[in-house]
Hints:
- There is one protein chain.
- The protein is an alpha+beta fold.
- The chain has a domain at 301-338.
- It has eleven helices and ten strands.
- It has helices spanning 2-24, 29-39, 41-62, 112-179, 187-219, 235-238, 247-257, 259-280, 341-347, 366-432, 438-472; strands spanning 26-27, 67-77, 80-83, 88-91, 94-108, 229-230, 285-297, 301-320, 323-338, 350-358.
- The strands form four sheets. Strands 2-5-7-10 form a four-stranded antiparallel sheet, covered by helices on one side. A two-stranded parallel ribbon has the order 1-6.
- Strand 3 (80-83) and strand 4 (88-91) form a beta hairpin.
- The chain is rod-shaped and about 185 Å long.
Amino acid sequence: MRFLKYVFVILIISISQFVAAQQNNTYTLQDCLAIAVKNNLQVKQSSLNAESNHLAYLQAKENLLPAVSGSAGRTLSQGRAINSVTNTYVNQSLTSDNYGLNGSLTLFNGLALQNAIKQASLAYEAGKMDFQAAKDIVTLNLISNYLSILNNLEIIEQVKSQLEVSKQTVARAEIYEKEGANKAASDIYDFKGQQASNEVAVVTAQNSLNAAKLSLFQIMNMPYNPDATFEPIPADAILPQQMNTSTEQIYQNALNELPAVKAARLRTESYEKALKVSKGYLYPNLNISGGLSTTYSSAGQKSVFTDSTTSAVPGMYVNSVGGKQAVFSTQANYATQNISYADQFKNNYGTYLALNLNIPIFSNFTKRNAISQAKINLQIYQNLEDNVKVQLRQNIEQAYYNMSSAYNRYQAIQGQVNVYSESFRINKLRYEAGVITSVDYIIAKNNLDNAKLNLISAKYDYYTSNKLLDYYQGKLSF
Length: 478
């Protein structure tokens, strides 16, 4: 009994894993979009570029802060050298240490630092828009391929249905052949030829589906999985509907919503600030600086009182009643002692504060040439922005034309399908009644089959163009 429970548990786990595997093998459009954006190398590169621009922006702001630096050094000298304590020459082995702390702050430089912050900020915002634009490009490519898969899936279903009808027709013709009821001797071969054509159509459609799957997995940067299945989009969402928005309205919306346009505009504004930065360097530069320092020298010495002695001064006497008296004097005695490291570090301490004004007079025209180069760069990016807008308008007009053409084509083919459906129904009855030949029957069937396949393609062509126009307006959704 325990063994049966164990087998039952293993069976449940296996079934769960199998179901999970089956679920993992099925992708929705949202799943594919998330995977593609996550794995795409161009998107990753754009993200890194945005991070780099963010660091440049932070650095531009931090350039307003004071610059502070410290220094420390030790010098070993032999022979004639300067004693840093007494500032006199000595002739001996000498060890000296120097310590310093310095700082400076720019007070004014033609607003170059402030404009550099604005320039870096705009470049950072442009980088974020580039990142979004890179994701949008991947999104559009993936949507197009995903819809291509769904298109081919419907086509496969259609050609398989056509193949099944051909098989039934061949089976019926074989029965008629045995009974001698076929109108022409070639009927059986005509129908078998039609069946073979439908089999080729199935193979062709399957190859197109596999190619679309391969392309989709390449966009997602994943190993190709031929067994993967894809969730369809609700049929009502795909059915073409007339769009009332004009190309000019779509274009104006795209100018305000499309990340690529925003990136181009921000980059132009960034280079406008770059021009102001270059002009700022023509102005005087005012900065304040200060610092403190101290030194130590192994030659640093001081005299230290040890004791005093009293003795008669030779040749000096004082006349008194008792006669000449010797004159005595007291002499202080000193010993030389090295000054300690701590005392020198404290006693040699010094500070300074300076206000500096640097007026550019002539610098080999480097600043003037930098301004000229900044103007050229600005014109380049103005042209790039204009080119983005021109290309955008052309893309919108082309997408709108494709959408309108696909809509009109869908409407026309839908009427064609209705007509050919009725034609095929009548010709089928006429063939079964022996009124027409197999050739007439096959022509009627092919007309209907081709119309149905064209209807599927027109439907997905419209949907693809429609979603592209939604993207240009910033309202892409599913």
